[in-house]
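Lab manual, section 2.4: Encoding a predicted structure.

Procedure: take the sequence of the chain (253 residues), apply the prediction step described in section 2.3, and record the output as structure tokens. A sample record is shown.
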Amino acid sequence: MKAFFNNIKERWVKYLIETFVIVIGILGAFAIESWGESRKENEEEHRLLIQLKQEYEQNLSQLNSKISIRNELINSAEILLEVIDKKKTLSQDSFDLYLSRTLVTPTFDPVNNDLAVSGKLYILNNEELRIALSHWSSNVLDVIEEEEIWLGYRDEHYLPFLIEHYSVRTLMSHVWADFEITGQVLIEKAEQSNISMGKSNRKLSYHDLINDTPLEDHLAIAITTNNLTNLLSITVKERIQDMLDLINSELQK
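Recorded output:
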């Protein structure tokens, strides 16, 4: 009888050991699978962070370029107002150059990843970064809307005014020859444009334009709208820098 119970005891110990080994094996398999999934998610997040870093660095570079072009526009318009108000003297060629710079319409065209729609937003573990990225489109919208206001005004009012009272051909010739501006617009900045339309053969005098037309009003609108766009752009620039700081912080972990 005693041998019978000893045999049962030995079998139960054997069963318990086997069960324990099986459970440990299952738990180990789950742990390995979980570790593998976690590693895969971390690698996917890292790839996304690298991509975002590259894209927002491009956005920042492009935005800085647009701000710089608008500053040139604003500065040129202010110089022309000084010519009108203070009777400052310029050569005809310098006047045409400054006036041509008030015709540019820089537009911000950012790389835009709609991560919320694609479902990739939640790959990112940093909640602050997720929120910043989800608000990106609305941050850019104000800048784009203000750019469109200036573009519409230039095409519908400013250009027709200059066509009537001056020579847009001469001004556009300056635009294409002015690499300080066009060089920031071209994709390959080292390549200058080959466009050469030449200047008008008409004898132009900027004195008639500044004395007998409402040029100053168009210049005032150019300064106001582009300055406002730059103020909005600076806000977007700060948001981009904040996102890049968060991205770099995550990449360093």
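Check your result against the sample. The chain has nine helices and no strands.
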